[in-house]
Each structure stands twice: as structure tokens, then as C-alpha cells.
Amino acid sequence: MASTHREEAPPIPRRAAVFTLTTVTLLYIINYMDRMVLSATLPLIKADLNLTDTQCGWLGTIYFIIVAALTLPASILCDRWSRKKALSLMAFLWSAATFLTGVGTGFAQLFAARGGVGVGEAGFAPGGIAYVSGSFRESVRAKVLGVFNLGQPLGSILGIVLAGTLAQADILGMGWRAPFYIFAVPGALLGVLVLFTRDYPSGEMVYGAEKKPLTTVQGLKVVITTPTLLLTYFGVGAMSFVGGAVAHWLPTYFARSRGIDVAKASLLMGGIIIFAVIGPVLGGIMADRWRRKRSDARPLAAAIIALACGVFLYVGFFIDLTGMKTLSYVVFVMVGILMFAYTAPAYSVSQDLVPEGMRSLSMGILVLITYGTLAAYAPVVVGWLSDLLGTPGNPDLAGAFMVVPPVAFLGGVLFYLASRFHDRDLARLVG
Hints:
The chain is mainly α and 431 residues long. It has helices at 14-49, 53-80, 83-103, 107-121, 124-133, 141-148, 151-169, 178-193, 216-224, 227-258, 262-276, 278-291, 297-321, 325-341, 343-352, 359-373, 378-389, 397-401, 404-430, and strands spanning 206-207, 212-213. Strand 1 and strand 2 (212-213) form a beta hairpin.
């Protein structure tokens, strides 16, 4: 399947586009720091507030449920109001909720505060992805989104390592609360800076060779009748379940299986994510280059990465349970790389196959499907299984993790099926 596409003019000057990409990527890093601070401090929170693994899981799941519920209206707000103003507002909201998490003194308060973080972050990924991808030429979209998606591993490593270190240091006697207070500051500052970026001109939602104008409702209909998009969305949902389970519970698994404190467990998780930083950029570059030969390269690349991720995850836990901790850690590093590498090609598909004026909306539907189906329930499912498979006071996280790799395999199958419809759906869009 040969790729046929012509080079197009850039939507905005390159310097302005690079500033947008830099600022929004930095904000995405903070987004993930504020998301991951909970994972790093979870053992201390559990002990301090006497929570069960199931309750700890709900603290992660409520975030995803709120994101799923609000992402669509937030995405429409980005497309129809102002991308940079919407992103600024979101940054202030999630920063305030992060601060309030540190104030919480019981499960109910933490549950509400983490839901509040979800309110702020609901439209950031859709709006941010639309903002940066719309600021550059389509031919480099996967590479640009690879840079943007560095926010996931970089924010994760900073969130995990800094939060664990700050919490263990017990700054001013604040214990696990300190990183929540500190992390709230940079998000608010970057929320101001993003207002100085330059937005690209909003195009109309038009479809097909006749360039028929579409309303928002008609645009939604286009999306839900495009198999490539729906299969990609559900594929991302499956992989986000994997990522959610690993990010929420692996630091706790390290602490329990190795008998170490949260600072050391956070450093182990941070080491994995250091290498994972290469995932989004590598996945984006490879998909863009392969696309010169195959027009359906992006969904195919995501499929291969997802299948490999599931295999390595199984192998990592099998080796770890045999006592070969160093070797298993190397395998977990590979899992980290693969867990982020699929994002650039998969997210690019969500932008490739929609009219210009509904890029945020497309990503909003992706997030809605992602967290409304599988991903939202990863933390609580693994936590519940850990309690179920273990004994009172001795949960079994390793056993609970065995449900995760098959979901990665499901993601690989869905991405492959998306590639089978890709060229037909692309032809429908461009006419």
C-alpha cells in the first residue's frame, strides 16, 4: 500500500509552533507529575489513613471516571472557544485539586480531591494534542506528537521520583502531603505562560470531496461511522488499562516484593521511566518513516508495539517471581518503553482521519472511550484482585497483575483491525 500525499504549508510560523510545542509539552509534564504523585505516595497514604488496596484503587479510578465524563464537553470547548485559554483554565483547576489532595484527612476527602484533578485534566490531552498537531505540517505529525508525548514518561518519572523522595524526607513534618503542595505550583505558572502561545487558525469541519460543512453533531456521526477511528480509540483504551495498572501499582509492588521504602521503590520506577522517555519519539519517528512506504503504517506500528508490550509484561513478572530481580527489572524497562511508544502512532491516527476543525473533538472521543471502557478501572480492578487473591493483611499484587498482559494483546488486535480499514476511511475523508 503506497503512501501518496503532498507537502503542505505550515499553519503558523515555525518559531511560534516550536514555542507552542515546548510550552504545552512542559504543561503535559506537570499534568503527569500531578497524576503520578499519588502512585509514589500510596504506601504512606495507605498506612497513615488505614486504607485497603481496594480503596487505594478507587483513588486512581475516580480520576479516570471524571476524565471520561467531562472530556467531550472540554474538547468541544477547546475547538469552539479558545485552545490556549481552555488549556490555561484546566491547568489552574488541576493544580488547585492537587493542593487539596494534600489537605485531605480521610478517604472521602482524597476521593473528592482526586476527582477534582480529573475535572482539570479532562480536556488537556485532547486539546493539547490538537493544539500541537495543528501547529505543524501533517507530514511530521507523528514525530511532533512523539515530542508532546514525552510529557507522559518525563512527567511520570519526575512525579514518581520527586514525590517519593519528598514524602520520605518528611519535610516540615508534612510526610506524604509535601509533594502535593509543591507540585501544585508549576502547573499554575505554566497555566499563565500558555496564554502567550500562538493559536493556529480554526478550520471548518468539512468532509469528503465535496467539502461538505458539518455541525458538531454531524462531526460526531462521522467519527462513530469511521471504523479506523473507533478501533483505534478502543485500542488506546486497552493500552491505557495496561499503563494505568502499571503506573498505579508497580511502585507498590516493588516496595512489597523487595521490602524497600517508598523512596527506593520510586527510584526503581523512575529508572524504568527514564528509559521510557525514548518510547514516544522512537515510535513516532518509526511510524512516520514507515508511512512513506505504507499509508497504514501508523495503526500497524501501534499494533506491533502493543503485542510486544504484553509479552514483555508477562515475562517480567514470571522472572521476578523466580527471584531474578535484576533481570526482571531489565524486562520491566522494556515494558516501560513499549508502554509509551504506541502513543505517537495511535494518537496520530485520531488526527489523520478527521476534518481539521474537529481534532480536539476526535481526541475527546478517544479519551471518553478510553476511560469509559477499560482504563478507568485498571487501578481498582488490580487492587480488588490483590485483596481477593491474597489474605487479610497480605494482598497478592503479583497475582492481580496477571490480568494485565491479555489486555495489551487485545489492544494489538484492535490496532491491527484499524489498519485494515485505514486506507478506505482516509479516502472517504479527502475525497
